[in-house]
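Researcher: We're reviewing a set of sequences before deciding which ones to prioritize for further study. For each one, I'd like a predicted 3D structure that I can look through quickly. This is Serine acetyltransferase. If possible, include the structure in token form so it fits the rest of the review sheet.
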Amino acid sequence: MGMIGRMREDVSAARLRDPAARSGIELVLLYPGLHAIWWHRVWHGLWLRDARLLARAGSQISRRLTGIEIHPGAKIGRRFFIDHGMGVVIGETAELGDDVMLYHGVTLGGRTRDATGKRHPTLANGVIVGAGAKILGPITVGTNTVVGANAVVTKDAPSDSILVGVPAKARHRSDHDDFSDLRVVSDYSI
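Model: Here's the predicted structure for Serine acetyltransferase, in token form for your review sheet.
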């Protein structure tokens, strides 16, 4: 899939997840979460080509424009969406799967000053992270897990779980835990 195709996919994903989005043009022009991921792809490409200083400089310009800091070394999957993104921080060795959604104030950070190896979290496909949550260290958050607002996650979490509290504790989602409205707003589907 080419660059324009990926951008269209991003706009569709944002439209599905945000009931306030009224049109594709509104999303393209006014959503800093989309701008941040689009710029990240440029800076990540430079990072992979060892133009690291330029990639870091570009990521800092993007941060100033969007309020969202994504290190150019971070690996981010398809259909990633940041809703109300101000204050989001994604560290260098973070890895995000497909269909991940973050709200404002989320930190995917490290817990060590060691400059080598994996220092930041991995979020599997379909993870949703609530406002102000902090996920710290080289841990893995399993598929379709929901992290509650302001939770502090420092340990691996299984798939299909809910993480709440400080420090966050995982519980398996039950049949009555329905988070589909957070992933897709059916009234606004395309």
